[in-house]
Amino acid sequence: SLEHAQSNHEGALVDAIHEARGRCDAIVINPGAYTHTSYAIADALATYDGVKVELHLSNVAAREEWRRHSVIAPYVTGTIAGFGRAGYRLAVEAAVAMMEES
User: pTM score, two decimals?
Assistant: First the structure.
């Protein structure tokens, strides 16, 4: 099954990650600007045992220098960036592939 959660509020995203523990096999997260600032989201992802894919619609490596550092990256399985809306499909496909490998 596939679930969706969206919020512009950091605490709601942390809650969604915690609620996924034991219920979901993978998380695809587009953290937006929280990529660079949210240690709370990073900590929540660190406690989640499933596959975790960080997704960015734009190619963050081709943007401003400050956008190139992710505090979340050390806690995810992999990152997909720069493919626009298609990135969501690619991220789900990557998560499924990782689950099939384990």
Answer: 0.93
69 lies in some domain: yes
Instruction: Yes or no: say if 27 and 92 are a contact pair by the CB < 8 Å rule.
Output: no
Look at residue 1 and tell me if it is in a domain: no
DSSP 50: S
C-alpha dihedral, 8 to 10 to 16 to 17, nearest 10°: 130
Domain around 59: 10-101
Structural domains in the chain (count): 1
Characterize 15-37 residue by residue with b for buried, 16 or more Cβ atoms within 10 angstroms of its Cβ, and e for exposed. Answer: ebbeebeeebebbbbbbeebbee
pLDDT tens, residue by residue, 53-88: 999 999 998 898 888 899 999 999 999 999 999 999
Residues 53/26, Cβ–Cβ less than 8 Å: yes
Cross-sheet strand order for the sheet of 78-81: 26-29, 51-56, 78-81
